[in-house]
Write a structure and sequence with these properties.
single chain; alpha+beta; Toxin - Anthrax Protective Antigen, domain 1; 2 domains; seven-stranded antiparallel sheet; four-stranded antiparallel sheet; 7 helices; 37% helix
């Protein structure tokens, strides 16, 4: 009981100190900014309100416990530029902190994660210097409680957020899963849509609103249903380059010309298919100028033509790269 009374008395004594409440608020705002920077789905801009609130609270706390007892409002920049000593903060760190505070006015498109991480790190050093002025340790214990609470919330909400993320529905209809990349080599983050077919003549227009009209690429995936053994023939005609793969096997390579036997954008391929579900993938890139792609096939020995939707199935929004047609069967 005596220890509890001592702790309560000490807590009240700290609360009565000028600047303690403001410093607690600063610690909470800084911790919130740290948590958001660690969150891979939180936009960088979400840290700015907390960092601004941190600086406002720090300036209020510093003013509250200054020996002068001045009641004149001061901005963080005024305080950092003053001669007021700050324990553990040298001139170099003070200058860096002033720069961090000044950077809070940059546009959202200019935010950089590394700069914000340095900002938070230096702000934590400033807070560590100010804490001893007001007792220090209880504030650190408060941060520990906040950290434990944050981890608990993350553990509770993590599975829900992961489930929500995986349930993002690919827009459109049709058996083709089309991934459009804003680069020539299928490397950056794609925009994924469903399409009825992949025969396109875009002329000089972009394939999608957020994809450039030149120097883009695409990957088209579908599942081909075969009910009896066939000698399948595929042909592709593209401007600029294309590849066709069946079951992971490259049967047409018209990606680049080789100067002798291979012509970029045009080619034929043959493959024997047994009854079952076969993954069909077409890769395409556009360099400059007009763009188009056409795919035809013969599954019965006849003239190659566009694949009927009856023999194609959508591989799913969450297509497994190791087994793209795992969720499809001949009975579908």
């Amino acid at each position: 009981m005596a220890k509890q009374a001592d702790a309560s008395t000490r807590g009240q004594a700290l609360a009565d100190r000028p600047g303690w409440t403001e410093l607690q608020r600063a610690a909470e705002e800084l911790h919130a900014a740290e948590i958001l920077l660690q969150d891979p789905v939180a936009p960088l801009r979400t840290t700015l309100p907390h960092l601004r609130a941190f600086w406002a609270s720090v300036a209020s706390a510093a003013q509250a416990f200054e020996a002068s007892g001045s009641t004149q409002p001061r901005t963080p920049q005024d305080w950092l530029a003053s001669d007021a000593p700050i324990a553990g903060v040298d001139a170099k760190l003070r200058q860096a902190l002033a720069g961090h505070h000044g950077s809070l006015g940059v546009g959202e498109d200019e935010l950089e994660e590394e700069a914000l991480l340095v900002h938070v790190r230096d702000a934590r050093r400033l807070l560590a210097g100010l804490e001893p002025e007001l007792g220090g340790r209880p504030l650190r214990r408060r941060r520990l409680r906040l950290a434990i609470a944050s981890v608990s919330v993350a553990l509770l909400l993590g599975p829900l957020l992961a489930y929500t993320a995986t349930r993002t529905e690919v827009p459109g209809t049709g058996p083709w899963r089309s991934s459009y990349y804003p680069d020539r080599m299928l490397e950056s983050k794609p925009t994924v849509v469903r399409e009825d077919d992949i025969d396109h003549d875009w002329d000089d227009r972009p394939p999608l609103e957020d994809i450039p009209p030149d120097k883009f690429s695409a990957q088209f995936d579908t599942c081909l249903l075969i009910t009896e053994p066939v000698e399948a023939v595929f042909q592709v005609n593209a401007n600029d380059g294309a590849r066709v793969l069946v079951g992971g096997e490259l049967i047409i390579d018209a990606w680049e010309r080789d100067g002798k036997t291979r012509r970029r954008g045009f080619g034929s391929g043959f493959v024997t298919l047994e009854p079952g579900v076969h993954h069909l993938r077409v890769e395409y890139f556009e360099s400059l100028g007009k763009q188009s792609i056409y795919l035809v096939a013969s599954l019965d020995g006849g003239v190659p033509q566009s694949l009927s939707r009856d023999v194609l199935r959508y591989p799913g929004d969450l297509m497994d790269e190791d087994d793209p047609c795992a969720s499809v069967s001949l009975d579908d």
